[in-house]
Write a structure and sequence with these properties.
about 80 residues; mainly alpha
Amino acid sequence: MSDVALNVLPVFALILIGWLLVRTGYLREELGEGLGEFVFRVAVPLLLFRTIAEAEFAGDAPWRIWVAYFGGVAVT
């Protein structure tokens, strides 16, 4: 199996599991709104911060990454 499939397959599996849980009535549809808010307001920014904080840049300042990130933040 290719590396792409091994990386993408778990994502689609989680989507399928979530869809099945809502479809069977185990979870309510409104729960998705709360989870979405958490992901985009808390989890993704923390993941980005941790990734940048732990990255190795060989002594150079990562100006291109900072400009790309904060440029996107300024636009949104």
